[in-house]
């Protein structure tokens, strides 16, 4: 009798996670779609040698897939992705179209197909720049058997599957400065190959509305005290407030750079130093205003036994997301940091372009009194 050992209860999810690791390591991945297969390559680490290899395999049929945000920066009025033919895989041309601040479109932009959409999703999941080279694989093209392969349908359903696939893997009391009665609860899942943390401050009564904050990780602000944002202030003020009241739960979510990843966040910071605001900088890189999802945060709260929340946030999207996920948002409350010369324009952009509830004038008035 022949037995088959399965190391995964969800093979499709496993294939996506292998593909993510390969793509982040600058290796090509094969996507198998409904209408065929394609070799996809990220643009970040494209060099002359790889360009030549891809060109040889493509035989003049490669194309570059760009998201709508990047196409707008190239001078087009677009709200959907598009693709540009690459008869020759020219590294300098790809760099200009996908990366250069002063890049401009130089050829017709065609509509994308499902494989192109899936290739972009793989790039986003991998937290690399959202621009990909796609080579449709015709019959007879020999591909290295060591390359990762992933079904396009699995890529499309990955975020939804992971949002529900959360489990607690560890928890322990961790006394904090100003909040000595605190517990860290670590969840695995929610955003793929990452861990998420719930910090239970004090002893909140879970049968009543619980004070909650969804805090997206900010390495520069939370840990190093960057003056470019108010994240560190928000983090510490929230914990202090919870400790001094009836307790609460802070979800520390691995969503650096509004979901773009730390590397792209620092790229955006460089653009901000050249005069772009936070949203324009992300658009130059090919990102829309906010890549984050908060459905899995609601799953974390439910897993902890929370059904009603008093949400500490300035972001209307978080309020709507928790309500949509089935939590009862009893009230929402502002969390304001210190205005600085370096972050006032950032706060204004969040208020004016993303609708955040930020009273900058009031913050400045309070700061001047101090």
Spell out the key features of this protein.
370 residues, alpha/beta, 7-stranded mixed sheet, 6-stranded mixed sheet, 15 helices, 13 strands
| Count of alpha and pi helical runs | 15
Q: Helical content, roughly?
A: 25-40%
Oligomer: single chain
List the uncertain runs.
none
**Helix-strand sequence:** HEEHEHEHHEEHEEEEHHEHHHHEHEHH
Distance between the termini: 79 Å
3D structure, described in words:
There is one protein chain. The N and C termini lie far apart (about 80 Å). The chain contains 15 helices and 13 strands. The longest helix is centred in the N-terminal third of the chain and has 14 residues. Helix 1 crosses helix 6. By secondary structure, the chain is of the alpha/beta class.
In short:
The chain has 370 residues and is of the alpha/beta class. It is 39% helix and 21% strand.
Secondary-structure blueprint:
Layout: H1 11-24, E1 29-33, E2 36-42, H2 48-58, E3 62-66, H3 68-73, E4 82-86, H4 91-98, H5 114-125, E5 132-136, E6 148-151, H6 152-164, E7 167-173, E8 182-188, E9 195-201, E10 210-216, H7 219-223, H8 231-244, E11 248-253, H9 256-259, H10 262-273, H11 278-284, H12 295-303, E12 308-312, H13 316-324, E13 328-333, H14 344-354, H15 360-369
Helix pairs in contact: 1-6, 5-6, 10-11
């Amino acid at each position: 009798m022949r037995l088959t050992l399965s190391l995964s209860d969800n093979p499709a999810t496993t294939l996506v996670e292998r593909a993510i690791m390969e793509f982040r390591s600058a290796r090509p991945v094969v996507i198998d779609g409904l209408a065929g297969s394609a070799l996809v390559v990220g643009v970040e680490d494209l060099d002359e040698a790889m360009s030549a290899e891809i060109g040889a395999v493509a035989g003049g049929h490669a194309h570059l897939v760009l998201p709508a945000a990047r196409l707008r920066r190239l001078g087009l009025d677009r709200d959907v992705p598009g693709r540009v033919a690459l008869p020759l895989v020219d590294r300098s041309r790809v760099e200009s179209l996908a990366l250069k601040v002063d890049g401009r479109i130089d050829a017709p932009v065609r509509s994308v197909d499902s494989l192109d959409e899936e290739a972009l999703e793989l790039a986003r999941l991998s937290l690399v720049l959202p621009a990909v080279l796609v080579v449709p694989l015709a019959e007879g093209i020999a591909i290295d058997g060591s390359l990762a392969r992933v079904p396009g349908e699995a890529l499309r359903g990955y975020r939804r599957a992971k949002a529900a696939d959360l489990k607690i893997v560890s928890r322990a009391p961790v006394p904090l400065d100003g909040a000595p009665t605190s517990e860290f609860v670590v969840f695995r899942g929610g955003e793929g190959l990452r861990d998420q943390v719930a910090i239970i401050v004090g002893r909140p009564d879970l049968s009543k509305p619980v004070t909650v904050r969804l805090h997206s990780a900010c390495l520069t602000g939370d840990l190093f005290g960057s003056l470019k944002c108010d994240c560190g202030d928000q983090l510490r003020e929230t914990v202090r407030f919870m400790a001094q009241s009836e307790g609460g739960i802070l979800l520390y979510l691995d969503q650096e750079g509004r979901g773009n990843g730390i590397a792209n966040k620092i790229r955006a910071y460089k653009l901000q130093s050249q005069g772009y605001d936070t949203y324009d900088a992300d658009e130059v890189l090919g990102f829309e205003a906010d890549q984050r999802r908060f459905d899995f945060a609601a799953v974390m709260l439910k897993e902890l036994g929370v059904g009603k929340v008093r949400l500490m946030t300035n972001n209307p999207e978080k309020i709507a997301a928790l309500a949509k996920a089935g939590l009862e948002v009893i009230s929402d409350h502002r969390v304001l940091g210190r205005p600085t010369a370096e972050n006032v324009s950032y706060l204004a952009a969040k208020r004016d372009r993303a609708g955040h509830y930020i009273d900058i004038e009031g913050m400045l008035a309070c700061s001047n009194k101090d």
